[in-house]
Design goal:
alpha+beta, High-Potential Iron-Sulfur Protein, Chain A, two-stranded antiparallel ribbon, 9% strand, binds iron/sulfur cluster
Length: 124
């Protein structure tokens, strides 16, 4: 009697030949795009000891980035907005400097701010 269980090699061949549905493709492509655009690509966040972004950096100037959020005109910024509570900040609330996905490879000040600030969602 022949064993009807497929071998691992046979399973791999079947898997490779299986057509991927358009929905499956779109889901995986969408997830990958969201992952990268959210700044979670490997190396997107600055490491400890990375250079600090300069306020004179062209991108920093375009986004009105400052190391001290308190120096921003109150008409431009709500008083509770800081890099360390921004969704794009890779550090924690207590970190003085950490990465920001807008400035790959550089650190921004935890007490800084820019006009791209977005509320960090609480982890549920
Ligand atoms: S406010 Fe957010 S987006 Fe702007 S520099 Fe700080 S962490 Fe980055």
């Amino acid at each position: 009697m022949k064993n009807s269980k497929p071998t691992l090699a046979e399973k791999m061949r079947r898997f490779a030949k299986a057509p991927i549905s358009r929905r499956q493709f779109m889901q995986s492509a969408g997830a990958a795009t969201a992952f990268v655009t959210a700044g979670f690509a490997p190396g997107a966040f600055a490491e400890e000891g990375a250079p600090r972004v300069s306020e004179d950096d062209p991108m920093a100037k375009a986004l009105n980035y400052v190391h001290d959020a308190g120096s921003v005109d109150a008409a431009k910024r709500f008083s509770n907005q800081f890099c360390n509570n921004c969704a794009l900040y890779s550090g924690g609330a207590e970190d003085e400097w950490a990465g920001c996905s807008i400035f790959p490879g550089k650190n921004v000040a935890g007490r800084g701010w820019c006009s791209a600030w977005a509320a960090r969602q609480p982890i549920k």
